[in-house]
Amino acid sequence: MSKLIYVLNGPNLNLLGKRQPEIYGSETLADVETRMREKAASKSLEVEFFQSNYEGALVEKIHEAREKAAGIIINPAAYSHTSVAILDALNTFDNPVVEVHISNIHKREGFRHHSYVSSRAEGVIAGLGTLGYLLALDYFAE
Ligand code: DQA
Fold first, then answer.
1. Could you confirm whether 101 is annotated as catalytic?
2. pLDDT value at 45 more than 90
3. pTM, whole model, 2 decimals?
4. pLDDT band for position 139 (cuts 50, 70, 90)
5. Which residues neighbour 46 within 8 Å (Cβ) at sequence distance 6 or greater?
6. Whether residue 81 lies in the annotated active site
7. Cβ < 6 Å from ligand 1: which residues?
8. Ligand 1 centroid distance, CA of 103 (Å)
């Protein structure tokens, strides 16, 4: 049976491709989802892809993952820098977590340098564009 990986995306990532393309690139979140589904299929993984602009919706999806997912790939977007609620939810999840950022948050404004989620994540990928999501999938395929 293939392993199910939850791929969770935080606020404003629904606008990927239109939003500050000089920082986040021109690919849409739907493009990322397609590439991930293709790669997952070739690695005997399955992905559940989810985006929300609401913190509570992300918390509830993490609770759902507790029962269903072998791992979580999460780009918490702006909530990385503010959300103890998302960190607490991830701390109730027993399987590995990989945090992804499209941009290199350490090269940007000081307020982006700290992520609450990083203290829970097995690994963090930042600054490699949307390729980071696919590399995170490789981790789960190993
Ligand atoms: C982001 C970086 C965050 O600082 C920002 O708030 C985002 C996207 C990234 O993928 O580079 O919305 O997580």
1. yes
2. yes
3. 0.97
4. very high
5. 2, 3, 4, 5, 40
6. no
7. 12, 75, 77-78, 80, 101-103, 105, 112
8. 7
